[in-house]
Design a protein that fits this description.
By secondary structure, the protein is an alpha/beta fold. The protein has six helices and seven strands; from the N terminus they run βαβαββαβαβαβα. The chain has one domain (about 5-180): Rossmann fold (3-Layer(aba) Sandwich), CATH 3.40.50.450. Helix content is about 40%, strand content about 20%. Strand 5 (about 100-105), helix 4 (about 110-125) and strand 6 (about 130-135) form a beta-alpha-beta unit. Helix 1 packs parallel to helix 6 (about 170-184).
């Protein structure tokens, strides 16, 4: 399956470590250079803005999906290839999922967690079988990974979470995973 479009879930803030933004830029550059479309939340700030800017700088396509109520708050990106405005957050997540071959999770907060777990729940319910990559730079997601392992060990998962999520250490490893999947 050739991967042509990825949805990236990530923070509208930059976080406390410059490496979060650096990883987003590195990934965005690689996506743009490889002609892989970025679909994301549409914001112009934080890691969201950094990855969109990086893809656009490499002449890549960037589609932002943003609900009306967040247009002002998240300060939508002004230079996108396309901006789709939805009525609700649920509509936003549905389109984010529909427009991607793969979901990539970068550091983020509550919204990123909501989007990750909705993707995984839909995957678990066989609504889709899209692959999910978690970029665990500097162990950002290690506590979450430990929690998923704990849920599995305690018998609350229907299958092994590692069958649904590929954990990578950095942007380079994300691209290696995408290239490997595209070659299958």
């Amino acid at each position: 399956m050739k991967i042509q479009s990825v949805t990236v879930f990530c923070g509208s803030k930059s976080g406390n470590q410059s490496g979060f933004t650096n990883q987003a830029i590195e990934l965005g550059n690689a996506l743009g250079e490889n002609g892989i479309q970025l679909v994301y939340g549409g914001g112009g700030k934080g890691i969201m803005g950094a990855i969109a800017d990086a893809v656009l700088e490499k002449n890549g396509k960037v589609v932002g999906i943003m609900p009306q109520l967040l247009l002002e708050w998240e300060a939508q990106h002004q230079g996108l290839t396309e901006l789709i405005v939805t009525e609700t957050m649920h509509d936003r997540k549905k389109i984010l999922f529909e427009k991607a071959d793969v979901a990539i999770i970068l550091p983020g907060g509550m919204g990123t967690m909501d989007e990750l777990f909705e993707m995984l729940t839909w995957n678990n319910l066989n609504i889709h079988q899209k692959k999910v990559i978690v970029l665990n730079w500097e162990g950002y997601y290690s506590p979450l990974i430990a929690m998923m392992e704990h849920m599995h060990n305690e018998g609350f998962m229907y299958d092994d979470w590692r069958e649904r999520i590929t954990v990578t250490k950095d942007a380079e490893a994300v691209m290696q995973t995408i290239h490997a999947w595209s070659a299958e």
